[in-house]
Structures are given as structure tokens and as C-alpha cells.
Write a structure and sequence with these properties.
Layout: H1 7-36, H2 38-41, H3 47-57, H4 91-94, H5 102-110, H6 112-115, H7 128-152
Helix pairs in contact: 3-7, 5-7
Length: 154
Amino acid sequence: MSPTIPANHASCLKVRLVAILSLMLLLALVVFPLAAFPKLGGPVEDTDAGKQLFQKRCAGCHAFDRNKEGPNLAGVYGRQVGTAPGFNYSPAIKSAHFVWDEQRLEKWLTDTQSVIEENNMDFHVPKAEERAAIIGYLKSLSSSRASASNHSAR
């Protein structure tokens, strides 16, 4: 003979089981992906990833301490286009009038010709997440440089 469980006790066990399974599902959907992909749970602007991508994709032509084949990018975010000291810009870039911001850099890294026709840069970053990381890195360097110069001016 098997033991019988009162009906209300069995119902209570079912409710507890459903609650436990729901909690486990929630953990599986929220916590585990964040552990597997820490960038998803990290800050919006992951400068380490941006720095690595910059080194891989951009550093062949650009630096932050000097002009190379491309202009010095120190402080590029928030800077007037075509104004890196000592760089010989193309006539198309010299005649452009805007400040580098997220939207312009995004469009530039997607397709330079769509921003300034007949510029000399024939390069693009096809992946949106890579463009965002590079822009975040450039922005963080420009922000830290601006705040350092603001502190030294005091």
C-alpha cells in the first residue's frame, strides 16, 4: 500500500516545484549568459576591447603621439575635422566643417566616402560592435586628455 498525500499538500508541493523551476530558468537566462559573456554585463564603453581593436585595425596608420600615414588621433573625439597639427590633409578634408562625434565617427568607420567624398582614407570597419568599441576607446582617450588639461590649467 502506498502512502497517500493530502490533496492540499500535493498542490503546495507543485507550487513550490514550479517556483523553483522558474527561478532556475531565470538564472539560466540572465546570470549564466553574463558569466559566459562578461562584456554584456560590463560598462557600455569597454575601452580594453576598443584598445585591442584599435591596435589591430587602426594603429598601422594612426597613433596618439605623432602623425603617421594618417593623422595623430590624440583628442580626435570632439575635435574639428582636419586639424591635427602638422598633418597634410587632402583638399576634401581641409574643406570639411564639422566636429568628430559618435555619429560622424560611426559613419566614417562604416564608409569614409559617405562622410567626405574624395578623401584619401580607403578603409572601413564592417562590424558595428567593433566600430562602437573603437569609438568608445577614442572617446575615452579624448575625455581623459581633456580632463587632464583642465586640471593642469587650474
